[in-house]
Amino acid sequence: MTFVQLIDCKTSRVDDMNRLLDSWVEATRGKRTATHALVGRDRSSSTHVVEIVEFPSYEEAMRNSNLPETDRIFQEMVALCDEMPQFTDLDVVRDEQLNKDTARRVFEEVLSERDYAALEDYFHADYVEHDPANPTGDLHGLDEARENLREELDPFEPRFTVLGAVADGDLVSQRFEAAARHVGTFMGTEPTGREFTLTGHVTFRFQDGKIAESWFNWDNARLLAEIGAVELPRP
Question: Does pTM surpass 0.85?
Answer without folding.
Answer: no
